[in-house]
Specification:
By secondary structure, the chain is of the alpha+beta class. The chain is 23% helix and 40% strand.
Length: 273
Amino acid sequence: MKYSKLVALFFIGMFYSVNAQNTSDQIFMNNGETIDVKVLRVEPNTITYSYVGEDLENVIKKEAVSKITFKSGREQLFSQANTQVETISPNFEYPTMKGNEGAILPFEFVFDGAEAPEEGFEAQEYYYRNLMRKPERNTIIYQDVEITLKRLRDAGITTANDLRNYEMTEIAKIVGAGILVTGKITVDYRSTTSSSSGSTTTKVDTKKKKVRTYSSDYSSSRDEFDTKVLFKIYDKNGNKIVDVRRVPFMATTRNNYVTALNYLMKRTPYYQK
């Protein structure tokens, strides 16, 4: 009897141990990134998922994914033949590599499920300008954002999404910088909150023996957004130096991501407070 109980406890322990190690699905990106998620749908051209503990749905193109490992242990591979492969123009001249120079790449920007590349360029510009406000606090030199964009364009990379088709080692060579700052910003409209208030003022004119009452009403509305910032820094060999995710508190505009970028900037290894 005791032996049977021990065997039962052993298998129960193994069951919980295996399940503890596989609490989420994993999506493996073609650029080397791995994200822990709950896969909701795999469709002909896209994969829909949510982050663990969240209900918000995110969509990614299947061509950017190499495989999915489900928490059950099953793997689903995606044909590399369907993945767009980009090549650098043979006329492109690689700049001199500066290993201790940083380059701010365009940020991916997704608003309500739709790509918004222009806002990704705005986030790139904001981050760079914020660094330049107090350049003495930077422990490295940063490449001018216009130079970064020009080198990327010359290589045929015109949006942040194009970066997915290249290894970070290749991007480092293209821009000539040994430290690459990049990320993804997701903004989804949540709701609009309205509020109103009123006040009444009574004035008494003792001479004319009149009483007058004045009333006024005030109303206001506030939009609310779900905002997430994925922030990454790579070295020229493609190694991740920073890989963090931050959610701004009380996002009331679609550009509230700037508070998260400002917070993250001050906590990189290349900034002195």
